[in-house]
Design goal:
The complex is a heterodimer. Chain A has helices spanning about 1-10, 20-30, 45-65, 110-120, 135-140, 150-160, 175-180, 190-195, 210-250, 255-265, 310, 325-330, 340-345, 350-365, 370-375, 390-395, 455-465, and strands spanning about 75-80, 85-90, 100-105, 105-110, 125-130, 130, 165-170, 420-425, 440-445, 470-475, 480-485. By secondary structure, chain A is an alpha+beta fold. A six-stranded mixed β-sheet of chain A has the order 3-4-2-1-5-6, with helices on one face. In chain A, helix 1 (about 1-10) packs across helix 3 and helix 4 (about 110-120) packs antiparallel against helix 5. Chain B folds into three domains: about 20-100, Clp1, DNA binding domain (Jelly Rolls, Sandwich); about 100-290, P-loop containing nucleotide triphosphate hydrolases (Rossmann fold); about 325-345 and about 355-435, Elongation Factor Tu (Ef-tu), domain 3 (Beta Barrel). Chain B has helices spanning about 100-120, 140-150, 210-230, 230-235, 245-260, 270-280, 300-315, 355-360, 390-395, and strands at about 10-15, 20-25, 30-35, 45-50, 55, 60, 65-70, 75-80, 80-85, 90-95, 125-130, 155-160, 175-180, 195-200, 235-240, 265-270, 285-290, 325-330, 335-340, 365, 375-380, 400-410, 415-420, 430-435. Chain B is globular and about 65 Å long. The chains are: A alpha+beta, B alpha+beta.
């Protein structure tokens, strides 16, 4: 069959109009690529297989090189305008209009990738300078790094052929996280714009700024504006309220401040009495008492000199009666004089002494003080009881994270962006371009040669996408694989 | 101690029909007399005729008759010499030269030196703890030091930790009182707006954890007051403690010294305690051993109980039962919630894991009102139990007053209470005390 067709197509390559018999042959031709199983390609190094494989390859080539035949009347005519990178329809659109294209100023337009796809499907004939473009021309003219790249088109075409509805993703049509948080209904204004499916920004990076892209950026900025306004207006508010609070605090407690300072200065036990100059009549340590200064005494009191010595003989020296139990305890805790301790001797007041005791207490309880004095401290104080689950939570150095955690703060990257909204095939019947609804997924196109998206990108894109999953389409020279990154919870065995 | 050099000059019947005894005192001597205890005993009146004299630090007015009721034990001290008339028949009356007043005055002078320094350096004043076994005159020494301090223009604070014989409020409480004038010769310090915490028993041993907790509370409040009131801060405080100086009682003393961050500890007449405290308190705390006065008499158990009773009566009826008129009204059980602090102790092995005994000692246990409530004193807590937090704070909150249950009617579910204020009760949370009071007089 393939052998038959080959010379014919070669001969008539430039023939625009076909003869009836040729047409008949074209119609009766089978368009199916013969299906082959994997076993057929399993190499067994035999000449026979080699031949068979070669034959299959030839069949394949002849099939795809075969000229396709369409009725001129079925083709929708369109004109390519390279300056705007857009295709304008000249004749009424076909069925594809339900899911593709947009109208503006009373005209119908197709985006280049849509036009190319329709050309490939044999629904569209695009003219440029009154000459029809071949599909190859289309590939060359329509696809470029600053509108739709080849890889993006490959993903687009692949999904279209599978029946999905694929639209360019427009970041500005996405409600801002703030609006999402408030659960605002889509604004009328936005809906209106949606109706006329405005020229969406090209999904390619905007390194060289096309008009559309810059426009889109403006839109994005516009979209951000309310938020930035919010932030801007909030900031002075907080600062002013902070200042007001300070002022208030000052006016409220004017007298308190010096008092406080005084209180702090006289912080408990921060002074040290000089007991060598302040002499108590202590019977325990005999010392001569100085004559009293009259200014220290109440009026009218004129004492003589006090002699401690005669009293010392009269002090109660009798043994304390103690029960055997008490004596036992006494013996056990035959405590040393606390003041023999060097560290205690260094303490000058109660505050320091309490600190020392605290430190020692801590040491006794099995938390070495030196571990706790530095900036880096142990994760858990062993003296403090805690449930197993809480402890596990505390010692899990690598915290599990939510995909959306902290994503709001990330800035978008140039390299990675969502390209397409994808709607499910079964929605095509009642699909409305003006109100497409929530996409089934969003596509981010990346090359198989390129880097794997990192966590930052994944976070940022999934945050941008909201509750619609982001699918990464990795293109490997025409083969497309789809990947998604999903949140998951590590299993937990401990339940309190 | 023998009364040496007594000068008993005259003894004749006075105009009031009472026996009048005149005493002429030399300088730095004191006249000690005791009034007979008991219902039937007569009061004794005292009048300063010439010179100057003081009773426990408070000066006497000349030619004013002071009345002392049964059981009073008074010492009239003079720095310059004076003559005093006693009317009535005291149980004992003698003049003693042998008094440690000079030592106490020297102690005051040292404390005053500290206050001066505190004032100069904008620091806090001395915090003094007075310790010693029972019946050595701790409360009297406190009273003297406070009176002297007030007389030189200070505003010290009395912290009363003696739950058995409280000088400020009813027994079974710990309290703090700001002293603004010398003690009245007859009545003692005027009790105005004291800070009182419920302890519930007359000995700290019944719930030592609670005792220590309340000590900490008082220390905390006192420190706060010192921060805002410069005068109170400079004045410092004088802490009167219990006479229990062994075992847990001793530990409670050390704890008190630590929480109040005391600067000076005055040990009265107990060398062993002095040595122990010197050993267990850090070196910057001055521990001073002082003798007790020869005039201090030992009080019997009955005597202590009577004083307690008298103190409670004074709370309801005023000094000598003359000035106040308490109210008696009925309170429905449903209107109040009665608690006891401290659950009975359980062996550690029966406790839930990780819980220690002190948790139970500070726990509020609801008491179902019944006949055994009769004659019990109840503290009216200043906090109402709402949620769990409030209930926890009840233990650590001061009380606003006390009532005594005089009768319980389980049928009608009401109890009759004696209250210093008319109905209704200001709060509905009542804490029960071990102390009972029978309104008999």
């Amino acid at each position: 069959m393939a052998d038959q067709n080959k010379p014919e197509s070669a001969d008539n390559f430039f023939n625009e109009i076909l003869s009836p018999c040729e047409l008949f042959a074209a119609r009766s031709r089978s368009h199916k690529i013969p299906a082959r199983g994997q076993k057929d390609f399993y190499p067994d190094d035999s000449e026979e297989q080699k031949q068979r494989l070669q034959q299959r390859l030839d069949e394949h080539w002849s099939l795809i090189s075969e000229e396709r035949v369409e009725r001129l009347g079925n083709l929708v005519k369109a004109v390519w305008s390279p300056s705007e990178r857009i295709v304008e329809l000249q004749t009424p659109a076909g069925k594809f209009w339900q899911t593709m294209g947009f109208s503006a100023e009373g005209k119908q337009f197709l985006l280049p990738e849509e036009a190319l796809y329709l050309m490939e499907c044999g629904n569209l004939q695009v003219f440029h300078q009154d000459l029809p473009l071949s599909i190859q021309d289309g590939y060359e003219a329509f696809l470029s790094s600053d509108s739709v790249s080849l890889q993006q088109y490959q993903v687009f075409g692949h999904l279209k052929r599978l029946g999905y509805v694929v639209h360019r993703f427009d970041p500005s049509s996405e409600p801002s996280p703030y609006a999402r948080q408030l659960n605002l209904p889509r604004s009328r204004d936005r809906g209106g714009r949606q109706l006329k499916r405005k020229r969406s920004p090209s999904p390619a990076p905007t390194s060289s700024k096309t008009a559309a892209a810059s426009q889109a950026e403006e839109m994005e900025e516009e979209d951000k504006l309310p938020e930035s306004h919010l932030v801007a207006s909030a900031a002075p508010q907080t600062s002013s309220s902070g200042a007001a609070g300070e002022v208030q605090a000052r006016t409220w407690w004017p007298a308190e401040v010096p008092e406080r300072q005084a209180g702090q200065r006289s912080a408990p036990g921060s002074q040290r009495w000089d007991f060598s100059s302040i002499c108590f009549p202590d019977l325990g340590s005999a010392g001569r008492l100085a004559p009293l200064d009259a200014s220290l005494l109440p009026g009218g009191v004129t004492p003589g000199v006090c002699d401690v010595a005669p009293w010392m003989r009269r002090i109660n020296l009798r043994k304390v009666k103690m029960s055997p139990k008490e004596e036992e305890r006494e013996r056990r805790q035959r405590r040393r004089d606390v003041n023999k301790d060097k560290e205690v001797q260094r303490c000058r007041n109660w505050a320091e002494y309490h600190k020392l005791l605290e430190r020692r207490q801590a040491k006794r309880q099995g938390r070495p003080a030196h571990l706790w004095s530095g900036e880096v401290q142990p994760l858990h104080d062993p003296t403090r009881p805690i449930s197993t689950a809480e402890l596990l939570e505390k010692i899990s150095v690598i915290k599990s994270t939510d995909l959306l955690e902290g994503a709001a703060r990330l800035k978008g990257s140039e390299e990675w962006r969502i390209c397409f909204n994808v709607y499910q095939p079964d929605s095509v019947a009642d699909f409305k371009k003006s109100n497409p609804g929530k996409p089934y997924a969003r596509m981010c196109v990346c090359s198989f040669d390129g880097p794997v998206p990192d966590l930052r990108v994944i976070k940022q894109l999934s945050f941008q996408s909201g509750d619609v999953p982001v699918v990464y389409a990795a293109v490997d020279h025409g083969d497309i694989s789809f990947y998604t990154f999903k949140d998951f919870q590590l299993p937990r065995d401990i339940y309190p | 101690m023998a009364a040496e050099g007594v000068e008993k000059t005259s003894e004749d019947a006075s105009s009031s029909g009472k026996v009048c005894t005149r005493f002429d005192l030399e300088k730095e001597t004191e006249l000690r007399f005791e009034v007979e205890a008991g219902e039937a005993a007569d009061q004794v009146e005292m009048e300063l005729l010439t010179g100057m004299a003081e009773v426990f630090g408070s000066e006497l007015n000349r030619n004013k008759k002071y009345t002392f009721g049964p059981g009073s034990k008074i010492a009239v001290f003079t720095w310059q010499g004076c003559s005093v008339n006693l009317y009535g028949k005291p149980e004992v009356a003698y003049v003693s030269k042998d008094t440690p007043m000079l030592l106490y005055l020297n102690t005051h002078a040292a404390l005053e030196q500290m206050r001066k320094q505190a004032e100069r350096e904008n620091e806090r004043g001395p915090r003094v703890m007075v310790v010693g076994p029972t019946d050595v005159g701790k409360s009297t020494v406190c009273r003297m030091l406070l009176s002297y301090a007030v007389r030189v223009g200070r505003r010290p604070t009395l912290v009363e930790l003696d739950v058995g014989q409280s000088g400020v409020s009813v027994p079974g409480t710990v309290s703090a009182l700001c002293i603004e004038r010398p003690a009245d010769v007859e009545e003692g310090f005027s009790v105005q707006a004291p800070l009182v915490y419920h302890f519930g028993s007359t000995t700290p041993g019944t719930n030592i954890k609670l005792y220590n907790k309340l000590t900490s509370c008082l220390a905390e409040v006192f420190s706060q007051r010192c921060e805002v009131n410069r005068k109170a801060s400079v004045g410092g405080c004088i802490i009167n403690t219990c006479g229990w100086v062994k075992g847990s009682g001793y530990q409670a003393l050390v704890h008190c010294a630590s929480t109040f961050q005391v600067d000076v500890v005055l040990v009265l007449d107990h060398e062993r305690l002095y040595n122990e405290l010197k050993r267990d308190l850090p070196h910057f705390v001055r521990v001073v051993l002082l003798p007790k006065s020869g005039g201090v008499v030992e009080r019997s158990k009955e005597c202590r109980r009577e004083t307690r009773d008298e103190k409670i009566r004074e709370y309801f009826y005023g000094f000598r039962g003359l000035s106040f008129f308490p109210f008696s009204f009925e309170v429905r059980f449903s209107d109040v919630r009665i608690y006891k602090i401290g659950a009975p102790s359980i062996p550690d092995s029966c406790l839930p894991l990780g819980m220690s005994q002190d948790d139970t000692q500070l726990k509020l246990v609801p008491v179902t009102p019944g006949r055994d409530l009769t004659y019990h004193m109840l503290s009216v807590s200043s906090v109402d139990d709402g949620d769990e937090d409030a209930r926890k704070s009840i233990v650590e909150s001061p009380v606003c007053g006390f009532i005594v249950v005089t009768n319980v009617d389980t049928q009608a579910q009401v109890m009759k209470v004696l209250s210093p204020a008319p109905r209704p009760l200001p709060r509905h949370t009542l804490l029960i005390m071990d102390i009972r009071f029978m309104d008999m007089k």
